[in-house]
Write a structure and sequence with these properties.
Length: 397
Amino acid sequence: MTVPAPRVRRRPSMLGRLLPLLLITALLAPVGLLLTQTWRQTSDDRDLAARERLGVQYLRALAPVTGALVDAQSAAVSGRPVSREALTRTVEDAAEVDARIGAELRSQERWAGLRARLEALQDRSPTDPESAYTAYGEVTDLLLALHRKVRESSGLVRDPGADSFSLQDSAGQELPEAVVAAGRLADLGTLAARRPAAEQTRSLIELTGLRVAALAPAADLVDNLRAAVDSSESTDLGANVLTPLDTYQRSVEALAAYSAPAAGTGTVDPGRLAAARLDAHTAALQLQPVILSELDALLAERIDGLDRDRWLTAGAGVAAALLLGWLAALLIAASRRARRRAAMTAAGAESPGTPPSGGFWQPAVSAGRPGDPRPLQPVGATRDPESAQWGAFDAAR
């Protein structure tokens, strides 16, 4: 019986040794790419929300400037003394905010130009109501342009939330425009009553245009805020906004009624119109801080959620790295064990009579023909089964 020689295993190739590392890399690359993209997207969203909060701060500083400027315009057109102290105080507060965050919002140049016009406007004392109306109108246009600049540079105009977008649009665009237009409407009513009869038709046309300009943003403001309350998940938004919104809506309805020309005369009562404008202005001053506070609360809540998402992304990255490291260690250990077994097998094949490391002595078995004598076997004894069967019978004969 021939005993086959043990097969010598071949040493693993370079590809076999690198296969575990290739598998780990193939798993690590897509996971790392996904986690990196998620981290970047979350960081970008968080940066946008943080910059929007800066825009809210700036709009909060511009709201008193708008109110003081409109009041100063009404006083100048009516011939009353202008309260420079109130306007100066609001300008200084807004300048402090611009010095702190204006560089990031890229609003410093526009604010510098507006502030120069405001200071020049306070230094002069126009005796002509018409020229005062024109001068203040130019400055309020610059103020509204600054509102738009702040909303654009802060990213408020690109806010992804339905409720927060409606809030920023209401507080940063519609409400300032409505306040300015309502002030101009009341002041024009005062001027129209002093103009000669030949200019009454022109005054009526101007009043109609300003009436639309004042009521359109106010109506849009009411619709936007109600839509924001309906679509928002915040339970505090409706409770905080609806009450001052109802007050503002009633004041706007009164402004619309008193700004319409009376039947038959085609004129408006400047006294009632001015009183309605003052009520609407007071209601707007109460509403705007509420809107900005609710908007800031929504943005702060969004930032907290994005921070949690970033921590989850980082935790997932660490867990994936640990898991892949553990898998790599297993594959490398298995590869090393396979190489050691192959080396031991090769050593045993080269020295068949030597005991393997850690084993017992195994004598080598020589291969030969079936009839050859074997160790511990009498001479002449064979391993032929047939001879062994008839041996006793031949001896008896």
